[in-house]
Structures
1.
Amino acid sequence: MSQETLLHELNERSREVFRRVVETYLETGEPVGSRTLTRALSEKLSAATVRNVMQDLEFMGLLDSPHVSAGRLPSQQGLRLFVDGMMEVDRLDPTDRAAIDQTLGNDDPDTGVLLDRVSTALSLITRGASLVLMPKHEAPIRHIEFVSLGADRALVVLVFADGHVENRIFTPPAGQTPSSMREAGNFLNAMAEGRTLAELRAQIGHQIAQRRAELDVMAAELVESGIALWGNESSDPRLIVRGRSNLLDSEIADLDRIRVLFDDLERKRDIVEFLELTERGDGVRIFIGSENKLFSLSGSALVVSPYMNADRKIVGAVGVIGPTRLNYGRIVPIVDYTAQLVGRVLSGRKG
C-alpha cells in the first residue's frame, strides 16, 4: 500500500493517535502506552478506544509493539509516513544559524580545513555524527611523486596546476625500491601534465598495457596501486566524519549495530553511493534504517543534502546521522541551511 493510500485510509482520530505516538517517541525514545496518549489527545477518548486505534495502526504496519504490554513504537514505514506526510519542519533556530555562520565566517583558504570545521560544528549543534563529503579537485595535474616511508608505507604527492596539493599515505606492493618508485613517478608525469585526474584514470590502464615492457613489474604494480588511491572511492578521504561518540551517547540500544556503523565509517565504504543518493534531486533527503544501504545495519537515520558549485553542479554533500528518533523537524533546516551556505562559500572561491 502506497503512503498516499495509507494517509487516505487514516481518519482524523487515527491520524491524531498516530501523530502523537510518533512525536512522543521522537521526544522520549520510549514505547508509548494508551494511558499516556489519552492525556495528550485533543479528543477525550478512553484508554480502551485508544488501544483499539493503536492495534489498527499496528495492523497497517505503521506501529510496532516491542513487548505485549510495553506500548507502541512507530515502525520504519510509520516513520517514513510521518516524515513525508505529517511532519512540520521547524524554522532554523537563530542560535543554530549563528553557530553555522561563525564556522564559515573565517574564510580559510584550505577547503579541507573549512569543511572540517563545518563537520565539527554540525556534530556539536545536532549532537549526532556529522558527515561532509568534500568536492573532488578537477584542475589539471602538474606533478606526481612517490616517496617511500618504510617497507610497508609510502606517500604519493599530487600537485595540481592551480597550486593545490594532495598527499596520501598508502601500502605499496611488497619489495618496492626507491628506483622503482622513481620509475613509476616518471611514467605518470610523462602522461599526466595537463590532464585532470579523471582524464588520467581513463588513460592509465591503456598506457600501462602499452608500456609495460618499459617498466619492471614492481614499478607497474606501484603505478596501479598508487593511482587507485584516487580511482577507488571506497578509500576516498573526502568524507569527513565527526562526532561518532555522540551515537554512543544516543539511545541506539544495539551496540553491535553501532560497531558496524563505526566500521562502515572508518572504512568509508560506498562513498560514491553517499553522493549519488543526493544527486537524484535537490534539497534535503531523509533515509531511515534499511532505506539507506550505507547505514542499513546501524538502526540509524541519515539526513543529507547536496551542495553545488557556481555552475549549479552537485560536488559534495553534508549530512547528520543519529538514531531513528532524530528530531527531524529541527535537523532538516540545519542540514539544508549548511549545504546552501557551503555551496555559496565554495562558489565564491577561485579554482
2.
Amino acid sequence: MPYFETNDHSSLYYRDWGQGAPVVFINSIVLSGAMWEYQMLPLCDQGLRCIALDRRGHGRSDDPGRGYDMNTLADDIAQLLEHLDLNEVTLIGQSMGCAEVSRYLGRHGTSRLARVALIGTVTPCLLRSEDNPEGAPREIFEAHVAAQLADRPHYNRMVAIDDYFGLASRWPEQEFISAEMKQWLVRLVLETSPRANIECFRALWLDDFRQDMQAFNVPTLIIHGALDHNAPLLCAQRTARAIKGSQLKIYEDAAHALYLTHKDRLNEDLLTFIRS
C-alpha cells in the first residue's frame, strides 16, 4: 500500500504513478495530492514517475493533531524521498507547498534533487515586520483565522472558488472550469482536518523562509499568475530575487488556480523544464 510511517508514527499516503524520472508534487494548503490530477496523468504519459504526498491531516493521511509546523512538514517530505529512495527528483510545490519545499531545502539540502518548481508561491515571508515591510499586516492574518473559526465551510468555499479563480471572467479558459470541477475542489478542501487547516495556516503566515532561499542551488522555475489574489505577484518577484539564477514565468491572465485553468500551458512548461 502507498503509505509510509514518519518518525512520530504518523501514516502518510502518497500517489505513485508511472515510471521514469521522479517528479514529486507538494500540494496547496487544505488540498490533498489529488489536486495534481491534471498534471500527473499527462506527465506520466510522457514517461515520468509522478508522486504526490497527502500532507498530514489532508486527504488519506493520518490526522495526528500535531506536526503542522513547517519543520515537521519538511521532514515528512524528506522521509518520503528516503522511503522511496528517490534521487534526481524534480520537486514541485504550489502555494503552501512552495513554503514546505523551501524549508525542505533549508533543512535537508539538495542532494536528492535535480530541480525545483514553485507555482503560485507564498514565499519568502508573508507577515509584515520591521525587517519585512513588504509583508501583509497581522490584522489580515487574524481576520482570516477568525473567519475560518467562525464558519470554515463558507470561508473555504469563498477562498477555493471566488478568490482561487480570481477574475475568471477575463479568461478564455473559464469555459473549461465547470461547476462540477469547482464542487470537486471544495470537497477536497473540506476533507482536510480542521486542526490541520488552522495550524497550517498559522505556520504559513508566521514562519519566515528568507533564510531557506539561500539553500536553492539547483535550477529553479517560478510560475505565477499576474491576477493571483491568494498570493500576490510580489511573492513570486521577491522569491525570484532571493533565489540566485531562478527563472520567473508570469501568466498574465492567470490567478492562483492556474494548475487547473492553465493546465496545458503549465504542463508544457514543466515538461520543458524537467527535460532541459
3.
Amino acid sequence: MARPIDLCLAETVAADLGVPADPHVERCVSSASGAIAALCGRDFARATVTEFPVGYGRPYVLLSRPPLVEVIRVVEGGEMLDTTAYTIAGDLAAGGLLYRLAGVWPATAHVGGLVTLTVDSHQGHPGALAVTYTGGWVTPGQVALDATTGPVTLPAELEEAAILEACALYRGRGRDADVSGESLGDWSVSYRERSAGQRLASPRAELLVTPHILRRAS
C-alpha cells in the first residue's frame, strides 16, 4: 500500500524491474523515499505542521517543508502576530523563507536539540516562535491514497530519483554492498562500489536530488 511519503509508485518501479508490484517493491519505494528525504534534510509530502524555527535575530527564518503554500499563524512569545507583519511572497515561498516586514525575529537557536531563546541558553523555549503553516509538494503516494489531493506537484526529478533508488534497493537485496566481484567456476559478476561520500544506492538518484538538499544553520 502506498504511503504519503512515497515519492513514486510501486507499480512504476515494478514495471521498470519487470516484476510484480508486491510488498517488497512497496518497501523499496518507501525506503528509497525515506533515504532521499533524510539526505535532503526535509519532508517532501504536503502537510500542515507547527514548527519552532531558528531565528538568530534575522529578518527571515527557514522553515523545513518548502515550498510554502500558506502560513496559518505565527506566535511570538505567546502572542499571535498580525498577518501584515510577515510575508512569503515571490521566491520566498519556494525557498521556505518566512520574511518579517519590520524588525527581526527573536534570537532563537537550536542547542542540544532544543529551541532556545539565545545561542548560549540551554533552556528550551518552544513558545518563543511558533509557525503553523502548510508546505511541501503533493506526492504520488498521497494521490494514490486519495485522488482528491491531486494533481501531483512533486518535481519530476525527485520522482525519477525515487524510482532509480527503489530499483537499486530491489536489485541489491541480499547482496553485500562492499563486494566488488564474485566468481564461481566459469561464472563471474562484478558489482559497482559506492564512491566516497555516496549515501544513496543509486549515484544517478543522488545527483538528481542534490539541488533539493535543504541547507540550514545548525
